[in-house]
Structures are given as structure tokens and as C-alpha cells.
Amino acid sequence: xxxxxxxxxxxxxxNRGEIALRIIRACRELEIKTVAVYxxxxxxxxxxxxxxxxxxxxxxxxxxxxxxxxxxxxxxEVTGVEAIHPGxxxxxxxxxxARLVRDCKLTxxxxxPENIEAMGEKTRARAKAREAGVPMLPGTLSAVxxxxxxxxxxxxxxxPVILKAAAGGGGRGIFIIRSSxxxxxxxxxxxxxxxxxxxDGSLYxxxxxxxxxxxxxQVACDxxxxxxxxxxxxxxxxxxxxKLIEEAPSAVLTPEIRKAMGEAAIAxxxxxxxxxxxxVEFLVDQxxxxxxxxxxxxxxxxxxxxxxxxxxxxxxxxxRIAAGERLSVSQKDIVLRGHAFEVRINAExxxxxxxxxxxxxxxxVPGGYGVRVDSxxxxxxxxxxxxxxMIAKLIVHGRDREEAVAKMRQALxxxxxxxxxxxxxxxRQIFASQQFVESRYTTRxxxxxxxx
Length: 452
Description:
This protein is of the alpha+beta class.
């Protein structure tokens, strides 16, 4: 038993799947009791079995369970928790929920509602980034009033441009526009997609970077003005703006550019008085110039690769910050050691990428030195169709990128999931690709790779 007082006595985890398990594990190490919430579809899920307490919050539909603020807050009251960790997705970047948690005299394990509001709406975030002197692509600083204003902005910026949901995220509400006719044809469709996904159809226009890398900086900031950046993650391997593979560090950044990007991310955090962990996302062009995209005010799916190369447990850091503790590390403590990859194992057909729910009839996960699997599935587990299709994250760490590639190939060969289709075959193909091995790729890699 540790002699140090735990940051909290009991935490409710307002999420499911592997991130709920990840938080449970961190809490156990910190000697914090946990409460799992679950929908009726998740009654047999591992996070329900491993938490100290579990409480059902509704039927399978996310709107009636994991997005139901009143059900979650009621569960928090009934179980007597001190804090709520939202994980990622669902309510993790919902300022209203964060404010309600605070109003209920509970701690939201994440940034303040004001932080979420400042960075969650994309045009507001762009304005804050500009104030902080962060490099940006040309674009509108506010949502456009309609298609005519969008065309006027695009003509001024120069095609191609990208039409983006102002309240967006997760790769949705994004259209690449190459002409005024294209913009006329796409505007309403993009607005409707944004409205359906985020409840807000507002759009803004930004210059489209044709062949970029997607590189993001991990930050951690406490309540006392201490701020650090923990290196970068290269998330350029994407399909339809959805990340498939992440690595740390990026193979293309120089130490000088890494420092400049990190300092830009910290300047933005300082400008909004950011508290908690977060991620500032950039596009990096072929000349290695970088431009602000957005900030994610939550823990990221791909946070393990940063943990592997820095040795910093980001979930524990997040919990401690919320409890009012100071950062456990300073900038001089952050040293990147080796190289790490993460691949997302999704319950999807590897050829069509269509979801593939069903029962897992056999499962074998890889192991060995430097291999980590974050997952919530087990033999005979039934993957349900109501939520995100990701069933596991496979993470490896090697002394350098070459060793990490070899380790990932071996781990993918060992990974067996039967009964449903998964994306393991596509990951094997990518890690066998010479273009990927030599790090000659951009965000267009997957669409070009699949056409071969």
C-alpha cells in the first residue's frame, strides 16, 4: 500500500470499451475505487466485470445511455463518487456536461468547460490560435453565412479548399472542394452531415493542403501554470479522415521543428489557460512547414504511443491534475526514447471497411517484450453493432523505427481473431509496404495504397 493519499476515493467512468478498462487500471494503481456505467448491450463487457461497482444507465442507443447526461449524473449520485472521467468520444468534449458535473459539486477529469468551449468550436479555436501566434493555413475565422459567402472566401483563398464543420471532429463534416461548382454542389450536403453529427450545420472554409502529414503534439497542463509538451504523434495513415495507424515520434520532424511545434502548442494552451491533457493537431507540408488544425480537449485514442516513448502515464497524469496536483514532470524530463506504433484493430471487413459485429469464436493476442494490447474483448464475446467498431489497439515499442516495424509485423502475425472479420489483414499489408517502411507517405497513403 502506498503511503500517499489517493487523488480521489472513487471515480465514475462515463465510457465503455478499452478506454474504460484503461482508466480502471490506472485507478487501481492509484488505489482509487471505480464505478462502471453500461448500457443493456454492454452487460457482459469487461469494464463491467473489472470495476468495483457497475450500474446500468439505459438501453443500447448511445443517446439513451452513454450520451444521457442525467442518467450518468444520477449514477454518480447513487454511487457516491467524487469525480467523473469521460474517456474519449461520447461526452468527453461536451462543455455542457463538464459544467453540469461541476454544478453537481463533482470533479470533471478533463479540461474546464471554458477550455472545451474555447477549443471545441473550430472557428473559435482558429481565432485563439491566431491570437497565440500559432501558424495557420488561410481560411475564414468564423462560420460562413451561406454558400455565396463560402464561394467568395474560396475565391480569395484559392482552390482547392476544404469545407469543414465548425463544431466538427472525428473526420466528419469535411469536404474537399476544387471549384466553385463543386462548392455549390457540396455545401448543403456538408452542412447536413455536420448538423446530423454535431447538432450544428455551421461551416468554415480553409485552404486545402494537398499532400500533408498529420502530426499532433501531446500536452499536459496543471492548474498552476505548469505546461509541458510530450513530443508528437504522426497520424497520417487515415481512411476518410479516420486514423488507422499512429507512430511516435514522427519520422520526418527534425528536433528544431519538434521544438517549434511543441512551443506553439504550449503558447495556445497558455492563451486559453488550459488545464488537463490535450492534443494540438497540425498539418505538416512537404517543406516541413506546419499549420494549426484543431485541438482535442480530451485523452486521445492513440495516447499509448506517447506513453511508450516518454514513460509518462497520461491517464494518471490526467487524474492527478484534476485532483489539483502539480504535473509530475517538467519539460526537461521529457526525453523521447525509441519508437512506437499503434494500429487500431476494428471489427470491419478489411476490403470494404464495413462494420462486422458478431461473436468472437477464438482469440489470441500477441505478447513479448515491447508489445502492448489495449482491448476489451475475449473468447465468446459478442461485438455489438451500436458503437464504434474498434475492438483493440496493438502497440509496440522498439529501440528505433526499424525494430518497431519488425516487432509490429511479428505481433500482427500472432494476432488471431476468429468469428468476425477485422482490419488485421490491411495492417499486415501496410507494414509490408516499402513505401510505409521508408516513411514515404502522406494522408493520401491509404487511398493510393488501396488503388494498387
